[in-house]
Design a protein that fits this description.
The structure is a homodimer of 299-residue chains. Chain A is α+β, with helices and mostly antiparallel strands. In chain A, 35% of the residues lie in helices and 23% in strands. Chain A contains nine helices and eleven strands.
Chain lengths: 299, 299
């Protein structure tokens, strides 16, 4: 696998085990695809599939998923707490290795056109693939949900990027788009004072003047008697972990508070960790091809 | 590949392209084996093959290599600058992921016994596999070379660990053993003064009181007008990169000299870089299974 693209489709089924298994197995049996995770939430009535492959494999994985999801899910009878507009609700394409956001934008357009054509489902490009600014935010795209989408799509502002001018009768519509890998990263502070975490969160997050690709908030870890700056790193290549860590350290210093630890929640691409080592060791001419495991994986 | 063991056999042929290719292809075509590199040196008349696999695959790769090497190499007519005692001269087994030095010691014993039995070649265990202290050092084991090995082996001190009491008539004898992954790591100093690099090398190396798993010397980089501490990290798990880097930084400080950069030469296991990120980010509960690429490779 020379290129690794991650695809994390959300489907509107989180209760019917047989249907979830059938969709997972449709993805898993696609040549070149590795299904890494399936998480289902009953109250949301929604499942998230995580799989990887190169562009061609991911495209086929998405097609297999749609085939199964359309056969299994009827949104007219679907109920759940999470907003949704489609049987396959949203399909993000995320570059991990050997691919760029730009290539994933191209892939989302290619897959979007193919899905619209094959299944007669309207496709809306969002995030970095969005065809105009008001379609970038998923919540905006999804507003109205399945029940309101027929009406919403009458507005020329909400014509689909691909496919028919009205939602699919049972499968609705789908949002597809490219975005960078998101890393959930928390930094733990040696104090009980939540205002310190809140102030530091404010200092580093984009919204209030901080780093472009950081979302953050203060959180209390009552069981440990400490507080945490809880962070979403939305583009670790442009805003790397170590830069945020050092900024938090400097801000915490000002309150006389130490960093007691930090934590990566869930998965991260190897490059995010390599960049940290490169920074602190001041590595010259380092390449991930020098790392035996990445070399093995991508050769 | 859940377990990754690296095997780096040295064979006594560095000139005959057809012979080298035949040996490389014998290894490459072994199921489960990935041949990463073949480096040949004409004046040494010697080639180094680098391949990886799990224990069973590596064992079969070594067997395939011996079959081809014995057919192709006759040490009675072999000339080259590098000392050698065997057609396959030395076979190191190196744990990279999901395996320990102890497991590689067991593997070297298993493969050694099998090779002795199948090909009638005496096998000497060295490094961490050595059956006694005086056999640990490869140079000691190889002393006498092919031409002197019949005589050397008459000494009970130099009875082989496996196989016949005399060298194979054309293929000699072989050293096999486990050792940790060796990382070649250099730290560049912002000075022209070689004595600073020499003193720092002395401070960090095991020989003169430094870290247990560090070999180091000062080197001049004339073209860049700087000096370098050139380091072999012989066990990055017990003596990690960041600890050596910080020690060099502190020693260099004492001379008012900055670290201008550092460099990993050749390959390194991902864990060596992850450990650096863990240290500086103070990561809690980090596991390589959280890294998408290592998860993909070893699942």
């Amino acid at each position: 696998m020379r290129t690794i693209i991650e695809c994390v489709p959300n489907v509107s089924e989180g209760r019917d085990r047989a249907a979830i298994d059938a969709m997972a197995s449709a993805v898993r049996s696609t040549p070149g695809v590795r299904l890494l995770d399936v998480s289902s939430d009953g109250s949301h009535n929604r499942s998230v599939l995580t799989f990887v492959g190169d562009a061609a494999a991911v495209r086929e994985g998405v097609r297999s998923l749609f085939r199964e999801a359309i056969a299994r899910i009827d949104l007219r009878t679907h109920r759940g707490e999470h907003p949704r507009m489609g049987a396959v609700d949203v399909v993000p394409f995320i570059p991990v290795r050997g691919s760029s956001v730009e290539e994933c934008v191209a892939l989302s357009r290619e897959v979007g056109a193919a899905i619209a054509e094959e299944f007669g489902i309207p496709v809306f490009l969002y995030e970095d693939s969005a065809s105009s600014e008001h379609r970038r935010n998923l919540a905006e795209v999804r507003k109205g949900q399945f029940e309101g989408f027929g009406e919403k799509m009458k507005d020329p502002q909400w014509a689909p990027d691909f496919g028919p001018a009205a939602p699919h009768p049972t499968a609705g519509a789908v949002a597809m788009g490219a975005r960078p890998f998101l890393i959930a990263y928390n930094i733990n502070l040696g104090t009980k004072d939540l205002t310190v975490a809140d102030r530091i969160a404010k200092a580093i997050r984009h919204l209030s003047g901080g780093f472009r690709f950081v979302k953050a908030m203060g959180v209390e870890l009552a069981d440990r008697g400490i507080v945490q700056v809880s962070i979403n790193m939305t583009n670790f290549r442009k805003t790397p972990l170590h830069r945020v860590f050092e900024c938090v350290r400097s801000e915490a210093d000002r309150y006389g508070v130490p960093i007691v630890g930090s934590e990566i929640v869930g998965l991260a691409p190897a490059d995010a960790l390599f960049a940290v080592a490169e920074h602190y060791l001041r590595l010259e001419r380092f390449s991930a091809e020098q790392v035996l495991e990445t070399k093995l994986l991508t050769e």
